[in-house]
Amino acid sequence: MRWFLLALALVGGGSEAAWPEKPITMLVAYSPGGGTDVVARAIAPFLEKYLGGAARFAVTNKAGAGGELGMAAIANASPDGYTIGFVNTPPLLTIPIERTAQFGGPQRFELLGNVIDDPCNFAVHADAPAKNLQELAAWARANPGKLTVGSTGVGSDDHLLMLLFERAAGVKMTHVPFKGSADVRTAVVGRQIDVAAMNVGEALQSIRGGAPMRNLGQFGATRSNLAPDLPTGREQGFDFQLVALRGLAAPKGLPPEILDRLVKATAKAAADPEFQAQATKLFAPLRYLAPAEFAAVMREQEQQFRQLWKELPWTDK
Hints:
- The protein is an alpha/beta fold.
- It has two domains: about 15-120 and about 245-310, Bordetella uptake gene, domain 1 (D-Maltodextrin-Binding Protein, domain 2), CATH 3.40.190; about 120-235, 3-Layer(aba) Sandwich (D-Maltodextrin-Binding Protein, domain 2), CATH 3.40.190.10.
- The chain has eleven helices and eleven strands.
- The strands form two sheets. The chain has a six-stranded mixed sheet, sandwiched between helices.
- Helix 2 (about 35-50) links the parallel strand 1 (about 25-30) and strand 2 (about 55-60).
- The chain starts with a helix and ends in a 6-residue tail after the last helix.
C-alpha cells in the first residue's frame, strides 16, 4: 500500500510539473498593431522565460464587438492553463452594464495581473484645425453633429471619452466604431474620420513612427511621463479623467498550481528591466497591479461606470 501511494504521488507531481506540454494561446480582443496587441507580443517571451521549461505562447487576435468576442473566448475557454489573454477596461465592465455580455462579467475570469494603464486622449490629422481641446470644442461647435470620432467600439474608453467630452463642451459629434486602435489610426491618417479617440501610448507610437497626427489632450490625473508636454484635460478646462487598464486573465476555475505559476510569471515579466525598456520604446505606460489590487480597482471603476450609465448611456442605438 505504501508503494502504491508513493507511485500515485509521483504520477500526480509529474503531471503538474509537465504543464505546459503544448503552446499557450494568448488572446487579444482587438486587431493587430493596436496598443494591446503590441504589448501582448512584447510580454509573451518574458512569460515564457519565467514559466520556464517548454512554455511557449501564440498570440491570437480575435477582434469584434468592442472587445466582447475576444474576452468571451477567454472566459469560455477550458480552464486548463492553455488559454489566457488580455482583458481591457472599461469594456470588461461597461459591456455587461449595457447588455448581456457573451463573457458574462469580470467574475468569469482569474486575474493574473494588470500590465498597462494608458490615459485616454484625442488625436487628429496633423493638418486638422484643432491644436488643443478648446479648439476641438470650437470646431465641433461650428459643425454640430458633423465631426466624426473613431473609437474601438461602443462602451470602450474611447467612446466614453467622446461622450464625456460632448457633455463637458456642450457639443455633438458622430461616433464611428472600429475593431481596434490600429484601424482608428489608419482612418484618421487617411482622413476617413476627423478625430481619433485613442490612448496616449497608442497615439505616440504612431506619431513617433511618422504618422501625420497630433495629440490634443490626455485624460489621466496627471501628465503621462511618456508625454510630459501634453496637457491634461483638466488643465485645458475639462474636469474629468478616463484611463484604460490592460491586464492578463484566464478562465475561471484554473487549477491552483497553474494559476499560481501564471500569476508569478506575470509579476516577474512586468518587473523585468528588459521588458520595461521594450514597453518604453512602444510607448506603453506600465502599471503592474497584483490580482487582488487589480480586482479592487475594477470594483471601484465598475461603480463609477454604473453611475455613468444612469447619467449618460453609451449605447449607439
